[in-house]
Amino acid sequence: MKILSFAAICGAVAFVQTLPAAETFEIGEHNFEELPRGKEADGIVGDFVIRNDRIEAVISGNLPERRANMSTFYGDGGETPGCLYDLTVKGANNDQITIFTPLGQRGPVNYVRVVKDGSEDGEAILETFVSAAKAGGVSRRHTYRLKDGWRGLLITSTLRNEGAKPGAIKLADGWTQMRSKGTAANIDWADAIDPADKCGYAADWVEEDGAKRPAGTEVTLKPGEEIVVARFIAVAASPAEAAGIVAARQGETGTLKIALKDDAGKPVSTGQVKIDFGGGKIAPAYPDDAGLVTVSLPAGKYPLAIEDIGRSAAAETVEIAAGAEVSKSVALGPQSAVSFSVTDTEGVSTPCKAQFNAIDGTEPPVLGPTDRAHGAMDQYFSEKGAFRVPLPPGKYRVVVTHGPEFSHHDEIVTLAPGQEAKIAAKLERLVDTAGWVSTDYHNHSTPSGDNTCGTADRLVDLAAEQIEFAPTTEHNRLFDWEPLISDLGLAPFLKTVAGMELTGRGAHFNCFPLKPDPRKQDGGAPVWKKDPRLNAITLRDWQNAEPDRWIHVNHPDMIENFVDRNGDGRADGGYAYFGGLLDGLETQNYSASEILAGAPYKLVQARGGLGRQVMPIREFIWLQLLNQGLDVRAIAVTDSHQVFGNGVGGWRTYVKSGTDDPARIDWRELSRNSKAGRMILSTGPFLEVETGAGVEAGVLNGVSSELNLKVRVQCTHWIYLDRVQVLVNGRQP
């Protein structure tokens, strides 16, 4: 009996030890892989993870220069230790929030620490504290609390006026970069930038942990007075689901379950259910892989709009009672779509862009937000030639392209409801660029912070527009796109090398190669300084000097950098010797070229209101710098921050290369050839120029007064050219 009892006790102990429990811990080198991932994940060594059986989150540590990315928040004082950086469903690795700042928390803190690690009673608590000395006389304490079963975090803020005068406090939280926001049942919600990522957040004040719901958006604390507020922030597969989690925490709710099916009775996992909360307040809910939408709702009547691109919409009205469940099945019918098979003339599947131009009264389609590849407004970018695009019924002119070196496919398609059209396109190489590769030295995705374009979306965009080499140039972050290029199957089409854009309130610099360390703030990047010469020198020697490292200045202020450093209207030569520290500068950045301008400036509409202002013309000034002996190489880039509207392909720089195979491109060779000026800047046409002696671009040719040129221009059949202009010492002869 004693043995049996002992065994039973051991078994019970073992069982207790394996029960799930909320926990929190600091991230170090040994457990770095415990950080949750996702499109907006920003955790590093020194941050804290807090998680349970339903969710996992990251709270930023009290680290130097700690911020989620460059834009949260920009400039001095923008550090955000002790804030919520990442929040995702447990195991989903689908973080879509950049930062949540309780009461706008920003700036230095005294500490971020673990109060309870969860081992004692299953409750995990982290605490951020800012003393009155650091916070203008009002101390701030933010606690992040989590228990098992919770689908969100309870964040409690305690503020105490320890000064001698009354202090006004704004009672408003902040979260970024959430473009699609709203309210549902007076609960704030936010959606992922790409709805296809299926991640929504919701937050509202709750009366828990000694807190009362604020009566307004601002409170004045008398000396010695204290206020406690708390909010619950939830994460789920959609904004409506997240809002329902918060609503259920505040009071009784019912449950709505909707099964979405197609005409054959199969689950529809795309689309959305728009739930009308009254007063124009609508929140979307997204189905899971089984086509099921499950949402908690306060008691009441709710009109529903069920939509999926290419299918007929459905409408329902449901009445929800507290504690009850309403289940419905909705048939959406067949989906109209266009399926593609796009190859080159050898039959190889090809990345491409498909444009759907609505004609004959058809409404222009909206396939998705401007930040993504798989459906951006009326375009679709694909990493492979076989893909399918759902599309509303109508008539479309469909144009398929793969950059300006290939032919295009142009076809009229009329889609009836439920019809699927098929397009087979062979794109022929029409421009012979042998010995040159198409590059773009300046692009961005969401790690840069000033945009929300998915990194995979940027890479698909680059490959679809037939950019063959694009260094990784995220703002103020060392990063490497190569692993994702490989995952997308784009290695045969696109090459990269790790690098960065060093950014601040002055000259910006792109630089490659560099070695990212994801465990460090900004991936181990240097910090920007005002004097551009210091930045150029820092980048040249960062992580040990690299003789083939490329450094160029982005969209330069030609006046400040090279003419008038302090802007007092008197020429002082700008930053002395700055040009000698550069390999190149962007004469062409996204906008149309003004290389033929006849003056160094133009008058444009003033930014701030009435009147006009002087706008320097970068190309004109660059040509004059060449005349003065400053031989800084020009490059053309797109500086893309979106996929649609500010995407890739408008500008490119052809660079001399010993291989035409993107997978075999040598960044060292490209850097050396770029430094030597063996480049062609283009919006599409491929221009070959050599002298009578056979000298190509980038090579000096001594002449006296005359020079014979051999010029050859190639264009695809959808680009038209009627003029070749030669500039002599910056002038049109």
Structure description:
- By secondary structure, the chain is mainly beta.
- The chain folds into 4 domains: 22-244, Beta-galactosidase, Chain A, domain 5 (Distorted Sandwich), CATH 2.70.98; 252-331, Immunoglobulin-like; 337-427, Sandwich (Immunoglobulin-like), CATH 2.60.40.1120; 436-588 and 619-684, Metal-dependent hydrolases (TIM Barrel).
- It is built from 8 helices and 42 strands.
- The strands form 12 sheets. The chain has an 8-stranded antiparallel β-sheet with strand order 6-7-8-9-16-14-13-12, covered by helices on one side. A 5-stranded mixed β-sheet has the order 32-33-34-35-38.
- The radius of gyration is 29 Å and the shape is globular.
- The model is unreliable at 1-18 (pLDDT under 50).
What is the highest CATH level, the class of the largest domain? Mainly Beta
How many distinct domains? Answer: 4
- What fraction, in percent, of the residue positions are helical? 10-25%
Largest sheet: 8 strands, antiparallel
Unreliable runs, pLDDT <50, ≥5 residues?
Answer: 1-18
Distance between the termini: 108 Å
**How many DSSP-defined strands?**
42
CATH topology name of the largest domain, in short, is: Beta-galactosidase, Chain A, domain 5
In the sheet with the most strands, the strands line up as: 6-7-8-9-16-14-13-12
Treating each run of at least 4 consecutive H or I residues as one helix, how many helices?
A: 8
Please state the structural category: mainly beta
